[in-house]
Each structure stands twice: as structure tokens, then as C-alpha cells.
Design brief:
461 residues, mainly alpha
Length: 461
């Protein structure tokens, strides 16, 4: 470890934050539950039918590829959050290690994840609830979902975490029942050629590019471990608890997703026999548990939507706070912290108002943008560790090279290939969004004649 790195790692962080700054109140278990809730355990069911069709019945194999890329990336997030335990996440890491202007553009791309997920979440709420109550206009469900999540976030991060405890536990219970019923159905031979084998991981129909294409979509299931880095300034001992939380979230979620999809794929090796591939999971739920479990399953989705909405809005508001405090976004609005509650009130309200556009939003167009932003963040966190090594770390030991160069480089390669595997529409929309950000940074810096406003590190101490 270089002297400069050691110096940065020794920065003291107070347990109690001064007036006008985020308050430290989150422990490791809070961080883990926030990350899991953000990812939504039941999200594994959203894309099963589509990914099974793309990968020719190898969804667990696609998840395994994603897990490899995610663990490399999680390792890099862990390193960066120890060095820069601030609220800006990948935006902060890139600007501190590579370039301030590039940091803005990466943060701008990452905003796609944070700002569009609450919109999509409210849309999903309307889809699930409208299927149960078709006579109620969909906009009412969208509005109600946003009001609930905004209110809970305004009441404080600890209350939101307690609510998420209950939501995550309920989701896991629904998933466990799903697995038990699936295993029973396979054992009694009631599936379509179903059996327990290695077919979901590898078979004669295995085609690596197709599995990578499926993996590029599934990577979004792991956004929770990335989101918790935005809570570094609200976490007690962030240099220890955030990295631990990241790995617990990534490994736990990965094992959960692989297990669930293995049993589902074992029951239905070919989803072509189902009536609706996009709605495969609810159809399977009804197949294995009848109308009763189908109703429980849909109820679980509603729970997942609320839990996701709370954490997604929380993370988006913290990313905007990091950029607002820097002055990259208007500081009086986005950098404001309520003096009593210690939360970014205006940001929470802004994200909630923005999510109301879901009333007019096309789900597929918004979802495609998220793919682009996710891989932008994953790619640059790996690259940031490599650049930090060559700029700041004096040691050239085998251990240092392995931890700062080889592991991040492998993660960089995996993520760039997954990025390349995205659909062309996602790339086009992402590049258009990045182009808008480029024009804004030109205006902000007077055509790069000056640097973007610098983060005052003392504000985070």
C-alpha cells in the first residue's frame, strides 16, 4: 500500500454529522437490507421467460456469468468506497481518480439508473395492481405508489429501512414457497419433461453469445450493491461496513437468483410451452400452486414494488445530493439538507415528481436506458481502481498488482463485453443522453476552460 493511499484511508469520520450534512445512522444490517430491497428478491421472476427464450433454456448459466462480472466489480466498489466514502458513488470515484469532466459524464450516465428506476417501478405497480383491479385507472396506482414511497423517505432513512425489513422478509417467504412447490411438481413429474440435471447450466443447445446476451439484461438485477455506495455518508464506519455489505449483497443475491431459476428451468426446460413468455412467472405460479398461490404471488409483487420504490428514490436523492454539493447541479436545491431530519428533502421530492411522468412513459424505452447507465457505472468503477493504482499507489508488489490491476481488468473486460451485448436501441438512447450531458458540461465549464466545481472533502468528514 502506498503512502498516499494510507493517508487517505486514515481520514477520520465522525459518527455524528454536523448540521446541514447527512446523518450517520446505518449499520451493516441496514446497508444489506437496503441493497437487497433495492434489487428486489422477486425481480428474479420478472425476466425469467424472456431470458430463457434468449438463452435456449440456460437462465442459471447466464446468472453465473453476471455473478463473475459483478463480484469483480463489487471488489472494485469496495476498494473505492474505502478511499472515497462519500455520497457520490461512481461519479465521485471517476472524477477523483481519472478526470473531473469525465466524472461528470459517468455520473450523468449513472443517473439513468437512479432516475428511471422509480418511474419503471411505479409503472410496474400499476401493471400488477391493474391486473387485480382492472376497473381502477392505472394512473391512480402510479400516483399512490409514488406518494407512499416519497412520504416514507421524507420521514427519515431509518423508518424506510424498518419498512424494508418487512418487505424483504415477505418477498423471501413468497420465493421459498415458490421453490418448494416447484420441487414438488418436478418430483411428481408434472412438468413438461422436467427433471433435476445440469441442463440449465450446460447442454447441447448452449450458445455462449446468446447466454451473454441474456446476461447483459440480467445484470440489472444486481444494481442494489451499487446503490448502497451512495449511502456511505449515512453509514457508521463506512470504510468497513459498505465493502462488507457490497459482498454480502452480491453473493447472497447471486446464490438466490441461481437457485430460483435453476428450479424454474428444471420444471420448464422450454418456456415455449407456456402461453405468455413475458408473463411466464405468474403462469408458472398458477401451474404449481393453483389460484391461491397465484394470488399470493401477485401480492408479493406488490410488496416488492413498494420496497423497491423506497430504496430507489432514496438512492437517487443521494446521488443528486453528491452532485449538488459539488455545484455541478444547482447547489441551493440539490445540495440542500434539512437541518432537523438530515435528509435531502428537495431531492426526494424532485425524484418523486419526476417519477410521475410514468403516467405517460413507455416501459420498454425507459428500461433500455437503464441498461446503458448500469454498464457505464460498472465499467468505470473497475477502470477507476486501475488508474488510482498508477497515479497514487507506490507499491508494485504482486499483491498490489493483483488487487489494483488484474482483478479490476478482468471485471472491466466482462462488463465491456456485456455492454457490447446490449440491444442497439439501448446504445442509441444511452449515447443521446450522454450527448446531452456533454453539452451541459461544455456550458458549465465554458468549453472546458475551467474545471467543474470541486468536492470539498471537509464537508464529508
Amino acid at each position: 500500500m502506498g503512502l498516499s493511499e494510507a493517508k487517505e484511508l486514515d481520514v477520520p469520520f465522525n459518527q455524528e454529522s454536523p448540521k446541514g450534512q447527512l446523518k450517520r445512522s446505518l449499520k451493516l444490517r441496514h446497508v444489506v437490507f437496503i441493497g437487497i430491497a433495492y434489487m428486489s428478491p422477486l425481480a428474479v421472476f420478472d425476466t425469467f421467460g424472456i431470458i430463457s427464450d434468449i438463452t435456449n433454456g440456460h437462465v442459471p448459466a447466464a446468472y453465473m456469468l453476471v455473478i463473475i462480472a459483478i463480484l469483480f466489480t463489487a471488489y472494485c466498489y469496495g476498494k473505492m468506497v474505502k478511499i472515497y466514502p462519500y455520497a457520490g458513488s461512481i461519479y465521485t470515484y471517476t472524477r477523483k481518480t481519472i478526470n473531473a469532466h469525465l466524472g461528470f459524464l459517468v455520473g450523468w450516465a449513472a443517473i439513468l439508473d437512479y432516475l428511471f428506476l422509480p418511474m419503471i417501478n411505479s409503472l410496474l405497480a400499476s401493471i400488477y395492481l391493474s391486473s387485480a383491479f382492472p376497473s381502477v385507472p392505472s394512473w391512480i396506482w402510479i400516483f399512490s405508489t409514488i406518494v407512499i414511497t416519497t412520504t416514507l423517505n421524507l420521514m427519515g432513512v431509518k423508518l424506510a429501512v424498518v419498512f424494508n425489513y418487512l418487505m424483504v422478509i415477505l418477498q423471501i417467504l413468497v420465493a421459498v414457497i415458490f421453490v418448494i412447490l416447484t420441487i414438488r411438481t418436478v418430483i411428481y413429474g408434472e412438468g413438461y419433461g422436467s427433471s433435476f440435471s445440469l441442463h440449465p447450466f450446460y447442454s447441447d443447445e448452449f450458445h455462449l453469445p446468446a447466454v451473454f446476451a441474456g446476461a447483459s439484461i440480467l445484470a440489472l438485477s444486481f444494481l442494489g450493491f451499487d446503490a448502497v455506495t451512495t449511502l456511505a455518508e449515512e453509514t457508521i464506519e463506512p470504510k468497513k461496513n459498505i465493502p462488507r455489505g457490497i459482498f454480502i449483497i452480491a453473493l447472497g443475491a447471486g446464490a438466490f437468483f441461481v437457485t430460483i431459476t435453476y428450479f424454474m428451468q428444471s420444471l420448464f426446460p422450454d418456456v415455449g410451452v407456456l402461453k405468455d413468455i413475458e408473463g411466464a412467472s405468474p403462469e408458472i405460479a398458477k401451474y404449481i400452486g393453483g389460484n391461491l398461490f397465484h394470488s399470493i404471488f401477485i401480492s408479493g409483487y406488490v410488496v416488492a414494488v413498494l420496497a423497491c420504490g423506497i430504496t430507489q428514490q432514496m438512492s437517487a436523492s443521494r446521488l443528486l445530493y453528491g452532485m449538488g454539493r459539488d455545484g455541478v447541479l444547482p447547489k441551493k436545491i440539490f445540495g440542500y439538507i434539512h437541518p432537523r431530519t438530515g435528509i435531502p428533502v428537495f431531492n426526494i421530492l424532485f425524484v418523486g415528481i419526476l417519477a410521475l411522468s410514468a403516467i405517460f412513459l413507455n416501459l420498454m424505452e425507459a428500461a433500455s436506458l437503464i441498461n446503458f447507465g448500469a454498464f457505464a457505472a460498472f465499467t468505470f468503477v473497475n477502470l477507476s481502481v486501475i488508474v488510482y493504482f498508477f497515479k497514487r499507489v507506490k507499491s508494485r508488489s504482486t499483491k498490489a498488482i493483483l488487487g489494483y490491476v488484474i482483478v479490476p481488468f478482468l471485471g472491466l473486460g466482462f462488463n465491456m463485453y456485456l455492454w457490447y451485448s446490449l440491444e442497439i436501441a439501448a446504445m442509441i438512447l444511452g449515447l443521446i443522453w450522454t450527448g446531452i450531458g456533454f453539452l451541459y458540461i461544455l456550458y458549465l465549464t465554458n468549453f472546458f476552460r475551467k474545471k467543474p466545481p470541486e468536492l470539498d472533502d471537509s464537508q464529508a468528514h
